[in-house]
């Protein structure tokens, strides 16, 4: 019997080992089906059809582990063309999976499918996905949660549970129709009717008692909140009444932890915070509202959710959070200054110290003549006086297949006319041109890019996102960038590494990155309004000398234009 028992023990161990190996193998490949479908949804006493993924708003979360391979098959059942961007995933050599329509792919037409295939390499944390065509990301978005490799702990206290918090905007009317109407009149579209937390505006809005996100916590325990700003046009404050938050990660990069009563998060950015449930058991509002320190109208209403301690009845009235004032520039500058890369032995900040290419991009708003528009003019936006025109053939396809006439690789490194960028307001557009122009970058070269806000029409904060890369935010300041003095103040030790950065109102931001990812990579303001006006461009990063440093061949089911 003893020998049989031993044999059974060995057999059980081998079976467990086999199952564990099989599960590990299966865990390395994650497959998702995204059905783009229209669904009727009701908010703020208004029902309307919206475009969704799998009928969900927000859409499903993509869960993966560092090192996994992910397949997402997208089938388009909606009336609009569709493309999905996996915001923050570097997509090394694999721009075909990046997603921005007419940049790396033609859109997925109604009735068609396309499978996005990508590897999650060297990244862990919170990212997100969203539609990258028209304004469809108003409702087509969701979280990406990348866990560290098995056996690798977080570099901060282990939470007992995690919550995803997606901040968004809601329009009572059809968003695409609102945008069309605005474009026809030459004016910005109507602003949103509410902000949302996980698609819900909260009980301070009409007909919204049941449309309120709530999370239950237990006294004395610590929770991780994965916060994503999926709003189209608003930088947002976020706070929880009575509770501090410890920031531990932004844009899927670990930070030096710091404690704050509120966070500031721009469209496209993610922030992970730890929350310790250490207050008197009760119900506490979490709130989000817009930050705007320029004379620009925004949706200034506060969306709320509820943090509720276990066993507390719903009849207890929640406490409201103290959010910064809507125009609190001081808080914004102070908060962003606290963001520092963890820069540990395991997670170093490999800041490029030598620069091969210096770029200086001015950000400008302007007006062009439009006889059919309401005021005889139409808004436009530009970088270095070039307002980008979207092509009809995807840029990456034109580059890879050497299709002529789609774009010009002569985007200017500097503005054509230097001026007092942040001085008195200027109404002239300084001869803004339109065109599909990209900047060609040598493979593996180190780039420093200074993004300079201007007072063309008005100064304003602009969150810029670079596809295919993370970058280091080495410097920022108010006023005009001074190339003789400001670089001496750069942080080249532990600057924040991220994929989306806010250029402060009437100021500048300097970033550095190593151009080691070949392909065509979009760079644009993540305010959808400004992107539509032309505040965008792209980098064409050349192939390296080795085949392993060149753009991968396109997939067979790549959509055609």
UniProtKB/TrEMBL annotation:
Protein name, per record: Uncharacterized protein
Organism of derivation: Trifolium pratense (Red clover)
């Amino acid at each position: 019997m003893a020998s049989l028992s031993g044999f059974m023990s060995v057999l059980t161990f081998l079976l467990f080992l086999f199952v564990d190996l099989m599960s590990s193998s299966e865990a390395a490949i994650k497959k998702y089906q995204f059905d783009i479908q229209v669904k009727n949804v009701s908010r703020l006493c208004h029902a309307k059809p919206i475009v969704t993924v799998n009928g969900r708003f927000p859409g499903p979360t993509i869960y993966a582990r560092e090192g996994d391979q992910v397949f997402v098959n997208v089938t388009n059942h909606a009336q609009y063309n569709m493309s999905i961007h996996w915001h923050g995933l570097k997509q090394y050599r694999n721009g075909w999976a990046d997603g921005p329509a007419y940049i790396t792919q033609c859109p997925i037409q109604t009735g068609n499918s396309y499978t996005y295939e990508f590897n999650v390499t060297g990244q862990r944390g919170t990212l997100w996905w969203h539609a990258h065509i028209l304004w469809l990301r108003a409702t087509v978005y969701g979280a990406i949660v990348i866990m560290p490799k098995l056996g690798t702990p977080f570099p901060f206290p282990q939470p007992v549970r995690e919550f995803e918090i997606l901040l968004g905007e809601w329009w009572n009317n059809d968003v695409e129709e609102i945008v069309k109407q605005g474009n026809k009149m030459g004016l910005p579209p109507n602003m949103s009717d509410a902000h949302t937390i996980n698609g819900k505006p909260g009980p301070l809005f009409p007909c919204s008692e049941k449309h309120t996100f709530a999370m239950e916590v237990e006294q004395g325990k610590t929770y991780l909140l994965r916060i994503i700003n999926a709003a189209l046009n608003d930088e947002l404050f976020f706070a929880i009444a009575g509770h501090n938050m410890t920031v531990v990660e932004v844009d899927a990069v670990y930070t030096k932890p710091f404690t704050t009563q509120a966070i500031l998060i721009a469209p496209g950015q993610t922030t992970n915070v730890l929350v310790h449930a250490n207050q008197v058991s009760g119900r506490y509002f979490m709130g989000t509202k817009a930050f705007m320190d320029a004379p620009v109208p925004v949706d200034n209403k506060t969306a709320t959710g509820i943090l509720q301690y276990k066993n507390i009845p719903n009849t207890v009235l929640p406490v409201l959070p103290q959010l910064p004032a809507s125009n609190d520039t001081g808080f914004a500058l102070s908060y962003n200054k606290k963001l520092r890369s963890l820069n540990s032995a395991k997670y170093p900040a490999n800041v490029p110290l030598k620069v091969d290419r210096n770029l200086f991009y001015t950000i400008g708003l302007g007006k062009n003549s439009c006889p059919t528009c309401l005021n005889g003019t139409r808004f436009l936006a530009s970088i270095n006086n070039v307002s980008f025109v979207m092509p009809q053939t995807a840029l990456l396809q034109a580059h890879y297949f050497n299709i002529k006439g789609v774009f010009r690789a002569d985007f200017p490194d500097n503005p054509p006319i230097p001026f007092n960028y942040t001085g008195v307001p200027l109404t002239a557009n300084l001869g803004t041109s339109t065109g599909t122009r990209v900047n060609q970058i040598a493979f593996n070269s180190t780039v420093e890019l200074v993004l300079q806000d201007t007072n063309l029409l008005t100064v304003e904060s602009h969150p810029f996102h670079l596809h295919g890369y993370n970058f280091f935010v080495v410097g920022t300041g108010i006023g005009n960038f001074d190339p003789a003095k400001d670089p001496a103040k750069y942080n080249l030790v532990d600057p924040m590494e991220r994929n989306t950065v806010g250029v402060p109102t009437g100021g500048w931001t300097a970033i550095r990155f190593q151009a080691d990812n070949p392909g065509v990579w979009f760079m644009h303001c993540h305010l959808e309004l400004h992107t539509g006006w032309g505040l965008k461009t792209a980098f064409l990063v050349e192939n390296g000398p080795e085949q392993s440093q060149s753009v991968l061949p396109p997939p067979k089911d790549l959509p055609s234009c």
